[in-house]
Amino acid sequence: MSALIQVENLIRDFDVSKPWLNRVIERVPKAKLRAVADVSFEIQERSVYALVGESGSGKSTIGRIIAGLVGASEGRVVIDGVDIAEQGSADAVRSELQMIFQDPYASLNPRWKVRDIIAEPVAVRGGQIKGLAERLLQQVGLSASDAGKFPHEFSGGQRQRICIARALASNPKIIICDEPTSALDVSVQSQVLNLMTDLREEMGLTYLFISHDLTVVRHMADRIGVLYLGSLVEEAPRDRLFDAPKHPYTRMLFDAAPRMDAFGREVEPPKGEIPDAINPPPGCPYHPRCPLATQVCKEQHPAPRMIGETRVRCHHAE
Amino acid sequence: MTQPVLSVRDLVVEIPTRHGILRPVDGVSYDIAAGEILGVVGESGAGKSMTGNAVIGLLDRPARIVSGQVLLKGEPIHHLKGAALRKLRGRRMGMIFQDPLTSLNPLLTVGDQLTETILEHLDLSVKQARERAIAALDEVGIPAARQRIDSYPHEFSGGMRQRVVIALALCAEPELIIADEPTTALDVSVQAQIIALLRRLCRERGVAVMLVTHDMGVIAEAADRVAVMYAGRLAELGPVRDVVTQARHPYTAGLMASTPVASQGQKRLRQIPGAMPRLDAVPAGCAFNPRCERAQSRCAQAPGPTLQTCDDRAACWFPITHEQEAAI
Amino acid sequence: MSDPQNPAETRPAPGRMARAWQSDLAYSFRHSPVAMISALVVAVLVLSAVFAPWIAPHNPFDPGSLNLMNGFTPPGAPNAFTGDTFLLGTDDQGRDVFSTILYGMRISLFVGFSAVLLAMVIGVVLGLLAGYLGGWVESVIMRTADIQLTFPAILVAMLIFGVAKGITPPEYRDQMAIYVLILAIGLSDWVQFARVVRGATLVEKNRDYVQAARLVGRRPFSIMIRHILPNALNAVLVIATISLALAIIAEATLSFLGVGAPPTKPSLGTLIRIGQGYMFSGEWWILLFPALTLLALALSINLLGDWLRDALNPRLR
């Protein structure tokens, strides 16, 4: 069975140079930031694939490239056998893909009624929208009468339900969830995550789940990719990753995450911070912070290799 | 028993609006001892930040303290204003906010800001103050503090900036620190560093810390005791291990159960139905009663339960006892 | 704090008028005496200008009703022929100053409103394009705006006025003068709108709701009109109000300098120019009353704009 989404050697550079005049006067070269550095992975139909990483790891950029909101510098994304960079045929694929954003206060136009917001994906394509919003509102656990209200009349969790309803409107196969619950409180988060689980089963959806929260990812995902400075450093099925993390960065991430059962835990906190992505360290991006680093790590960026079911980019992982 | 550094007694904060008077903090009482970290946890709108702001005298108008007391080492401070309050802040109380960028002046070097604060509160020469500033930066773990003291805030990374803010809060050797979501804007690895730093400073200096956050994991790791707030009131107050593992208030229990960690291996997470009431529609009696599966008729009647009137740990007429919990 | 934006949600829904009356804007209006007084002054002035033909005792544009013998009648003195009282006196031509002010205000307001409307349309369109498209489009638009800003607006207006006048046939000049004025002021004032709208667009276009709209295939033009523009309107409204006062003053200035409304159809500025010649010869009323009217009009609109800016700014609430 072939994958629903294939991401192949994806690279994305952002131009972070100063304006042209400043560059000329200050004699500085163009600067670029490699947000995504040679990332490949596949997402199987009806599965949940999670990308985890800290800020600046490129996880949101990958999501936006797959959604078609940002272009790729190199590499390609194939959805359902269609390269999304192709003109024409990619349009049909687009309608099968939707997105849920992090901030439920910024992702709904404050001047639009909920009915119009939810129906927008269908209305843009000239589809039939009568009663659509009302039906979807009920499906996500709100009431049909909410359709006539404006977004500011809802709480954060309710707004996120509205976002989910909008994402469902065009009957997509794939939903990209960019930190869908990190702006929500714990008790609301559990409601929204449960809703997403239920909808996935009912509608046979595939999720690309982007998050920095390991506990949420562990609950939701089937397969997880760990990103560090734009590189996919480790990828494995959920239980495999949590039971036997291979990459030193993954291990550090697991150790550093606050735990509910670690009262007054005294662990040696991790050293250092994520380096500047404009001038990344040569070789393996993690080597300045890595306890296992040797000379080869400073010189060569490790190629991905398989250890059991885990794919890892590290010279020393076993 | 030694005197607590901070005592809050029946604190009530009100905001008059044109739709009526809101009570974001409603009858909150707690103590923090020297060298202790009290975690204040709750969902957004529970009044946890407002409590911190009320203690330190930073309420934005029109919010105001209408009754209750805030005692710093037994001295009432809730009525202080202007210069007296400013003197107290910084000298005896330090604060750390969520966003380190907004609490530092971008136009002054880190050293200028530190020495200015030190000179304002301590009787030292400029030279001595500078040495002290370097020592403060050193203490919060900024490498090469002597070289970096003349850098501007934007030259530091997010985690380092938060360390500078902590140094700024500590440099006048306060007795109490109020940390409002100090790690929320930071990455996991940096968050762990900051928590470790806070704990170390608290232990070594004997500072009392009020740690306000929504993250149960941070509370569990950092705090000695925890206060759970709901709709402006204290729902539960007790040692962190007891509250997290054997919650007595149904709200606390629901909160703990709905974290993804607690439901590991299950397909669905436990969830509390509904949402916290808005401040203009807090139900009568126990604020949690409409969402509570244990609620009985008494729960909807005024006066609502408080820590003083019912269980010594949970403001609940029918707290979960440990035996019951084991049976669930 | 839970979101304090609208604590009214749990109340039963009132009617549209009642809702408007209870809105934050109306509340702030009712609690600002300055705003209420300004609004009252503006309303009285605008209404009396609109209904000038019914209110004014004379039609100053009708040369047949004028008599030079009535020239320089002081305020409160009677008409030498009919015995009617000239409330605010007459000017050099025997025109009733009160009536002339009312008719002059009509022209001032018409020019002001039209110029602001023109500036607004140009500025909003260019601001949206610059903010949303970015790149060289933005560079061209905003650099043009910067260059225009380096000249005083009145100079730009005079330049446009001069060019326009030059290319209009002489026999149409007086007729066209007012439209040329509108064009001149409108073209000199669009920069404000463009800057504000560009700023708002830059903020809004990165909001996720715009991303969501892009995702479902909405075209850029449609996103600008349906999504971004409604969210930039508050800022536009504030600028428009303050620009209105400025446009009225600009019109008065141009007319005062003799390049605006012709003496046969005087605006407030023309009246001030006429009156200025008699300031020290005893006929002070010809200058004073038009000047006071202009002051009241511009000041009230400005105060109203200031209030609106504060009331619509969520950070100041």
From TrEMBL, chain A:
Query: Which GO terms fall under molecular function for this chain's record?
Result: ATP binding; ATP hydrolysis activity
Q: Where in the cell is it found?
A: Cell inner membrane
**Stated family:** Belongs to the ABC transporter superfamily.
Name of protein = Peptide/nickel transport system ATP-binding protein
SMART domains with a match to the protein in the record: AAA
Q: Its GO biological process terms?
A: peptide transport; transmembrane transport
**Which Gene Ontology CC terms are recorded?**
plasma membrane
Top-level taxon of the source organism: Bacteria
Q: Which organism is it from?
A: Pontivivens marinum
From TrEMBL, chain B:
**According to its UniProt record, where is this protein located?**
Cell inner membrane
Instruction: Output the Pfam families linked to this UniProt entry.
Output: ABC_tran, oligo_HPY
Instruction: State the superkingdom.
Output: Bacteria
The UniProt entry, under SMART domains, shows: AAA
Gene Ontology MF term list: ATP binding; ATP hydrolysis activity
**Gene Ontology cellular component terms for the protein in this record:** plasma membrane
Ranges where the ABC transporter domain occurs: 6-256
Provide the alphabetized UniProt keywords: ATP-binding, Cell membrane, Membrane, Nucleotide-binding, Transport
GO annotation, biological process: peptide transport; transmembrane transport
Task: Name it.
Answer: Peptide/nickel transport system ATP-binding protein
Organism equals: Pontivivens marinum
Automatic annotation (TrEMBL), chain C:
TM segments?
A: 34-56, 107-133, 145-164, 176-197, 228-250, 284-308
What are the record keywords, sorted? Cell membrane, Membrane, Transmembrane, Transmembrane helix, Transport
CDD domains in the record: TM_PBP2 (cd06261)
Q: Which GO terms describe its cellular component?
A: plasma membrane
Protein's UniProt keywords contain Zinc: no
| Subcellular localization, as worded in the UniProt entry | Cell membrane
In what residue span(s) does the ABC transmembrane type-1 domain sit?
105-305
Bilayer disposition of the protein: Multi-pass membrane protein
InterPro entries under this entry? BP-dependent_transpt_permease, MetI-like, MetI-like_sf, OppC_N
Tell me the protein's name: Peptide/nickel transport system permease protein
